[in-house]
Give the backbone structure.
Amino acid sequence: MIPPINLIDAFDRVTDYWSPKVIGEVNDQLLKVAKLKGELVWHAHDGEDELFHIVKGKLRMEFEDHAVDLKEGDILTIPKGVMHNPVAEEECWVLLVEPASTKHTGDEVTDRTRSLEEQMS
């Protein structure tokens, strides 16, 4: 039997901002939890859509021509190939749903970029 995962408790595994942790998998999609604060980096995922579910706090998703403010409970899907930059003024908890092939910061590499191996630990 597969044990249930408590989503709120899963955030205990996250010790650094912008460092997602994989907590499960559904049909080749990874479920990841992350704590965000500040801004990440402008990037796109050329071959994959990315879903953000705001579990706690607020997030501003910047796009090239507009921005979307998200609050607790909101869900936003970023279509593949769309440049975006997540910004959190205060700590924000998110559940991400994306294929395993999704690079954390697309083709942009910064000190915040995490490999899939790091996200699995």
About this structure: The helical segments are 7-10, 116-120. The chain has two helices and seven strands.
